[in-house]
Amino acid sequence: MTSKNYYDVTDWSVGNPYEDIGEVINSIIADIKSRQTDTDVNKGGKPGAVIYIPPGDYHLVNQVVIDISYLKIMGSGHGFTSSSIRFNTSENEWADMHELWPGGSRILVDIPPEVDEEEYKGAAFYIERSGSPRISSVEFSDFCIDGLHFIEDGSVETAPENTYTNGKTGIYVASACDSFKITGMGFVYLEHGITIYHADALTIHDNFIAECGNCIELRGWGQASKITDNLIGAGFKGYSIYAQNFGGLLITANNVFPRGASSIYFDGVTRSSITNNRLHSFYPGMVVLKENCSENLVSSNHFLRDHEPWTPFLGIDNGLDDVYGLLYISGNNNTVIANHFSKIVNTQNIKPLGATPVIIRIVSGNGNYISNNHVVATDVHAKTSDSCFSAQVDALLTTESSEPLTVTTVLVEKDSLQNTILDSGSDAQIVMDKTVNAFRATPTPGS
């Protein structure tokens, strides 16, 4: 027996999904609402539905508006492939490429950008519902949302396809939500991949979110959510992971690619964990804890800061200098333990020239605990290349260095007191007032 609550976008009576899948999905949601009207039938009443998107290319002209719970929209493949590599390859070479565009179950966002338009209007999927209870258990799984092109914005001297600007968002959740899931998805060439306000028990797991201006943004406030096991990489003007006024956020086992202005940015986040992530950046400010971020755990992460090796993005950065710190902390009682930091740069490119780069910088707050962190800092003359893949692999595999690089492993500013710094640098590598902070140096060979 075929369920009335399972829909295939290619087998629906309203609209053409290849021309405008937005019209089709909105029509399906209207059908679900018209059939599921009772709130209590045999202790049920509104089971929701599944909407299936088979592999194929589906243009989206009309925004999908979701205001029902228990809805799953799923495809059969996230279909991610690099659009940035293609757009930065000569068009003369395109004819020899095996494929040119992302694939799988792919939605092409054709919503036209409008000047000064409200941000949510550029979203492929817009979720909002007022009243009680909060909208719950909306799921997105196994399809690709492709913003197609970036546009000239006048902000940098780079090709329009490298600006990370187009006013488009993949998924935008505007109202308080509970138990949402985003899994196995692909997001590419969107100014904002995922933007969610007021999330509770949110799962963002096993997605490929890259070549977006911003990848994951948790705004407003939220609690008890997780961002796990994703492949992520934002553009130089945005965040790979951003969280605002959150409590109980778990960020674990993500592989965060370079070029995002910050790998992880916390704004007023408390009692949350950043653990077991691989973080790679071309700029300082890799992980930022600002606006009284307190009682957070940063543990067992690998931080790699090196130089941009790909020629289309040479000379572009996030505007921060090397004394800002790879890990920037403003807040109380945070724990930073057992992290590995690799700073692999050319001294001639340090900003400002001649400055001593900082690894961990505690700007303000009290009672922070920094222990057993290992810092490797070397002066390397990095190579550049027109090939994105080979350039980055070569840079990652290069461990030869001309000489060690002098760094400050931990800098505690005067506005931060009563911190404990243990085994995270030699006496010469730690800069702080030892009369108001506790300190134990890492032993040095031969000492």
Task: Name a few traits of the molecule.
447 residues; mainly beta; Pectate Lyase C-like; 2 domains; 28-stranded parallel sheet; twelve-stranded mixed sheet; 3 helices; 40 strands; globular
Detailed description of the structure:
By secondary structure, the chain is mostly beta strands. It has 2 domains: 1-38 and 45-212, Pectate Lyase C-like (3 Solenoid); 249-447, Single-stranded right-handed beta-helix, Pectin lyase-like (Pectate Lyase C-like), CATH 2.160.20.10. Helix content is 8%, strand content 39%. The strands form 2 sheets. The protein has a 28-stranded parallel sheet that branches. The protein has a 12-stranded mixed sheet with strand order 3-6-10-14-17-19-22-25-28-31-34-35. Helix 1 (17-35) links the parallel strand 1 and strand 2. The mean pLDDT is 93. Keywords: Transferase. Residues 159-305 form the Periplasmic copper-binding protein NosD beta helix domain. This is Inulin fructotransferase (DFA-I-forming).
Q: Give me the secondary-structure category.
A: mainly beta
Shape: globular
Q: What's the total count of β strands?
A: 40
Overall radius of gyration:
24 Å
Number of helices: 3
Largest sheet features? 28 strands, parallel
Q: Which runs of at least 5 residues are low in confidence (pLDDT < 50)? A: none
Helix content: under 10%
Strand content: 35-45%
Mean pLDDT: 93
What is the CATH level 1 assignment of the largest domain? Mainly Beta
CATH topology of the largest domain: Pectate Lyase C-like
CATH homologous superfamily (4th level) name of the largest domain: Single-stranded right-handed beta-helix, Pectin lyase-like
Count of the separate structural domains: 2
Beginning-to-end CA distance, first to last residue:
77 Å
Specify the CATH architecture of the largest domain. 3 Solenoid
